């Protein structure tokens, strides 16, 4: 008789997961990464820290972008789109797009940052709350 409640609990968990009643992952928070590339003029490695500040909830995200090395702070992000584990970000004024895939717990996104046709790999890590 003790198995019946365990089986019922397991069935409920599966039903919630299938029907989408499970809590959705949130991408709100600060996402930090470093863009690295080689300067074609002197072949020196350049690293540029970047941060996306994402606000809102699934389906209604907004964001700003910082890169102090480039002198960019609080640059408005035009769109943040999250579909399952696919993440897309666009900053039209800077001709920047980012497309990546998040890990299962939405703490890391691995993707490609493209600016004016030039692409580099960029891994973003979500800053965990203190």
Question: Topology of this structure?
Answer:
Layout (H helix, E strand, L loop, with lengths): L2 H17 L9 E10 L6 E11 L6 E6 L4 E5 L2 E5 L2 E6 L4 E7 L5 E8 L2 E9 L4
Antiparallel strand pairs: 1-2, 1-9, 2-3, 3-4, 5-6, 6-7, 7-8, 8-9
Describe, in short, the structure shown.
The chain contains one helix and nine strands.
Task: Kindly describe this structure.
There is one protein chain. The chain is mainly beta and 130 residues long. It has one helix at 3-19, and strands at 29-38, 45-55, 62-67, 72-76, 79-83, 86-91, 96-102, 108-115, 118-126. The chain is built from one helix and nine strands; from the N terminus they run H-E-E-E-E-E-E-E-E-E. A nine-stranded antiparallel beta sheet has the order 4-3-2-1-9-8-7-6-5, with no helix packed on it. It has one domain: Lipocalin, CATH 2.40.128. The chain is globular, with a radius of gyration of 19 Å.
